[in-house]
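Structure ticket #2291
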Amino acid sequence: MKNLKTLNFDFAVIGGGLTGLCAAISAARNGAKTVLIHDRPVLGGNASSEIRMHVCGANSNMKKPELTEGGILNELMLDNKRVNDSFNFSIWDAVLFNAAKKEKNLTLLLNTAMYDAKSEDGIVKAVECYQLTTEIHYKISAKYFADCTGNGTLCAFVGAPFKTGSESKSEYYEPHAPETADNKRMGNTLLFKAVDRGHKVEFVPPVDIIHFTEEQLKFRKHAPDISSDIIKNITPEELRVMFGGYAQDYGYWWIEICGEKENIIEEYEDIRDQLVAAIYGVWDHIKNGGEHGAENYELIWVGMLPGVRESRRIVCDYILNENDVLSSRSFDDKVAYGGWDIDVHNGLFAFDKKPSFIYPVDGAYDIPYRSYCVKGFKNLFVGGRCMGASKLAMSSTRVMGTCAIGGQAIGTAAAILVLDKSEDMRCIEIEKLQQQLLKDDCYLPNLINTDESDIAKNAKITATSQAIGYEVENLVNGVTRQINGQSNAWHSCSIKDNIPEELLFEFENKTEIKNLQLVFDSDFFTEKKITLSSTRQNQQKIGVPTDLVCDFTVEFLAENEVLEKLKIRDNYHRLVKLEITPTLCDSVKITFSKTWGCDCFKVFEVRIY
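Resolution: structure written out below.
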């Protein structure tokens, strides 16, 4: 007899990659009873230990650091930096797992595959799932659903329209679109990890391989990544000291197979088999096919779950296109942003071409709310690489950093809709959504904090010291990062003799205060992502960002009497939210006593409610 459980939620997220994880966490934090359904044993999708791709985003590998993603994604990376300086993907898995499990409004169902869905009159009613480990069938209903599967599987199950391949130039008048629509698509990739053992290591392929020649791979870099400008003057011994081992290499994204059939999803297993033969074939060429400087290198990990770049793209209320991306277009209903170059891949077997062609994106572009709303449905969001975008726009929006902040926008929207008892996602008040995203440390280009309930903006603010260009007025200017060289932060003068620095917020009248939040500087100009790449690892610093405030105290006062006092120690987050029992106060004093190594205290924003 089938073991069936029926569950009901406010919000159901299908797919536990970074998009789905951020969607689920944001919804749960904002008050929605949420379930996250994921068919793998670990969260993170392409960023998990099963695939091990590092997270790229709008900052384009630190070419545009001011555009580094904040919000939940940044929080997860800071959690990881606190515990995982060895770039261990198993620990990263645990960080993501813990982030989901600690949310009281979030139910996590791992190893659970959705196999059917029911909809009626543009409303998704329920999904049916099977958990392999427990043999439990679930029927899950919800007020709102989010398809974060990557393939748009839920959307396909309920009959939502979708596209594959490239649109013709006449559809959106995109400058780099083909004259005629086609079904060419980017492919799937397996990664590997190799280390320098310090002595010669033989390699015998464990499987039948595809043999490659130097001529075939002439456009594809295929030597251990030990010659970058960043580390070219560092000796192997220094590398061992820095990273506790040998120089590392992380495989090649261009070991990519696009398939030949109409539907690349149906080819997934066949493509995986080809990729296994290809990845070991490339390594055999590197080891046994001529001088590549890899005599001492040994494979220590090879993926078996391919990462996917492209399949379905769901038709949404608005289809973001290449013109929007290249023109850095602004939308009134912006809820996320991108900045990665338009990056279209050719696949491994296009030997006569470079592995990808790139059209640079200058700065950031907005992503509108409408591009996450599935056309023809009232309660179905779609996020990640299958969101509403043309092939060329998707070639920028598909990177995980951009997908993750889109997921946070979806989850926040779902929670607002549930709490407002709205029955159609299009009934949302966009400004309310935008302001909540800003409050939760998401960046939206050219938008600032206009929250009238934030009483910090009306307070008299003084500090024991302030550096030139980093005055206290910046704390309430509504912007929580450096943009266009504008600091938007308060910095104390240099810390001397461990003397604390203070901020004082004074109000004209006593006011009931319930909570306070601060945004610290987590150094968007230094890379923090977990990665297999030795080059990307060498860009990073060990430990928690030194710019972050470590220890501080908040006092809530009336007539100089301390009514409530909170002591925060060993903080390693950028966004810190604090709650107290509602208290009538006429001032709030924040005393900073320690950083993680910086010689001054740095704060972008203080909000008081």
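Closing remark: The mean pLDDT is 94.
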